[in-house]
Write a structure and sequence with these properties.
Largest sheet: 4 strands, antiparallel
Helix content: 25-40%
Distance between the termini: 32 Å
Structural class: alpha+beta
Number of helices: 5
Shape: globular
Strand content: 5-15%
Number of strands: 6
Number of domains: 1
């Protein structure tokens, strides 16, 4: 007999609430990252290597991911295109959620009993080596820069990691 998805199996029942599942996954991922011996900055850099992550989640106001433009008609409005200041590549900036990255980093900092960044923009700039506030930066962080507040704001906006 087939087992129904998300149903009870031998006395166990999978978590059906999307946010609670995300919390559980972030906790497990934090354990695995710790077992691999990753530093928070290595983890931050790794997580930025997945630009498609959270593309269907509502972003925090002001959150932008810049990707290299393809020089063709795009759904991105012209005013959201900028030139990289160093090499003049065309970059397209689009609103983007970072809820998975933020939740995972938050749980990792907590697991390690590290200080949780109050200014995630500054943390990415100095600890990870990613610019977050210049024209041409791959990542633009909105006004809410406290990591804990960002996770809560994303949750209130309906985003699910």
């Amino acid at each position: 007999m087939p087992v129904p998805p998300w149903g009870a199996v031998q006395g166990y029942c999978a978590e059906r609430d999307a946010w609670k599942r995300a919390e559980l996954r972030a906790h497990i991922d934090a354990i695995v990252a710790e077992l691999y011996g990753l530093s928070p900055s290595e983890l931050g850099r790794m997580l930025m290597a997945f630009p498609l992550l959270d593309r269907d989640q509502p972003p925090i106001p002001g959150e932008v991911l810049a990707k290299e433009g393809e020089g063709r008609a795009s759904v991105v409005r012209r005013r959201d295109r900028v030139r990289h200041p160093r090499d003049q590549r065309l970059l397209e900036r689009e609103p983007r959620s970072f809820v998975t990255r933020d939740l995972f980093l938050l749980r990792y900092f907590e697991r390690r009993r590290d200080v949780v960044p109050k200014d995630v923009s500054d943390w990415f700039r100095h600890q990870v080596g990613l610019e977050t506030d210049r024209t041409g930066a791959a990542l633009r962080i909105g006004n809410d820069i406290d990591l804990r507040k960002r996770v809560e704001q994303a949750r209130r906006a309906g985003a699910a990691a």
